[in-house]
Amino acid sequence: MPSLADVVRRHGPDYLARFGRAVLPSQARALRDIARCRTPEMGGHIVACEACGTEHAQHHSCRNRACGQCGADRTASWLQQQSELLLPVPYFHVVFTVPSELRLVIRRHQKALLSVLVRAAVESLSSLCGDPRHLGGHIGALAVLHTWTRALEWHPHVHLLVPGGALDRNGRWITIPRRKKRFLVPERAVGKLFRGRFLQMARQVLPDVTLPSLPPKQRWIVCCKETVQGSDRALEYLGRYVHKTALSNSAIVAYSDDFVTFRYRDSHNHQLKTMTLPPHEFLRRFLQHVLPRGFHRVRSYGLLHASGRVTLRRLQLMLQRPRTAGSDPARTKKRQLPRCPVCKSERLRRLRRFAGPERYATTPASTPLPQSARAPPT
Fold first, then answer.
1. Cα 362–248–341 angle (5° rounding)?
2. Nearest CA among 47, 42, 29 for reference residue 342
3. Tens digits of per-residue pLDDT, 72-104?
4. CA distances to 54, 120, 351, 355 from 49, in Å
5. Rounded to whole angstroms, how far apart are CA atoms 276 and 9?
6. Distance between alpha carbon 105 and the CA centroid of its chain, in Å?
7. CA-derived radius of gyration, the chain
């Protein structure tokens, strides 16, 4: 079956030759890394199967966060690390979305405004949850930034995964009251706070940039819902959002010199559809979701921040966290081990390492770009 790497190898060099001067370094690196991922250019190891004695090469992965091939390994590793950080409470999924009028200015100033987007979302939710009329305590949140729709269009939004409860000033855990339908905070109230904080913070970090005018009564969409019961199910739910990339290999249907076809699920009716785009437009849509180098797409706040591990452990003891499928290291989903291509055994032994060509780290400064390069299509 075709993969994203196949499309990049076929059309990536021509895309860089045409639009190279307008392509961000992180985007150019993503193209080159994806093209080289798990190929002889990356180097690798010669391994021997202890079951059948076959020797074969295992090529290194690129570990680029935009690469769909590397996402599964990162997710499995993250799930193992997070399995001991769960609380035995319901988890809530809160999504913060900005109006369409602001999307273009966010795209032009990604490093500044995407950080503002995440911070404004977390601070708005924390402020409302700290109000005694709601929870009246300190919450924790795992924030995951996504910038895409299922059709690869630019649509920045933040997913927050929040334990259902808060810690008050006296160190007591406040549980959300059991009702027919439990809710964390009123969506309209947190939406108003989110609007004010985002606009205020955006003007502070970009005082010379004029933000688009917005209707005074325009509602900023915030969706809050309970996810699943049980910490084991919550861990699985978290993994689906943390290391997800804009497009997986399984989504590519076909490609040629003139088109790329991929499948996606319509967000309105949830039907599976296909879309066919010219190769350069397909790469433009994909690359716009490659974030600037050094930008952290996944961030922890409050009770879930690394600085609060002592408090988190105390909460787990106080709430008498049970041994569940999510918290039992023996049952946590492990990273899939390489298999022998002949007998499918996982009993592989490394014999020696071989190096590939020079790594990309030295490539950008020495790669000449044509003087006639133009900006990518919009």
1. 80
2. 47
3. 667 777 777 777 788 888 889 899 999 999 999
4. 5, 52, 10, 21
5. 18
6. 21
7. 23
- Stretch 162-184: mean pLDDT: 83
How does pLDDT run across 333-376, given as a tens digit for each residue?
A: 455 677 888 888 888 888 888 887 544 333 333 333 333 344 45
pLDDT higher than threshold 70 for residue 169: yes
Q: Count CB-CB contacts under 10 A for residue 331.
A: 13
Please compute the mean of the pLDDT values over residues 219-241 and round it to a whole number. Answer: 75
CA atoms within 13 A of residue 289's CA, in its CB half-sphere: 25
Q: Write a three-state SS string for 15-66.
A: HHHHHHHHCCHHHHHHHHHHHHCCCHHHCEEEEEECCCCCEEEEECCCCCCC
Domains in the chain: boundaries: 1-71+248-288+339-378, 84-246+295-318
* 367 neighbors 14 (Cβ within 8 angstroms): no
CA distance to 120, 152, 268, 360, per residue, from 288 (Å): 22, 9, 23, 20
Distance (Å, rounded) from C-alpha 54 to C-alpha 349?
Answer: 11
Task: Identify the CATH number of the domain defined by range 84-246+295-318.
Answer: 3.40.1310.20
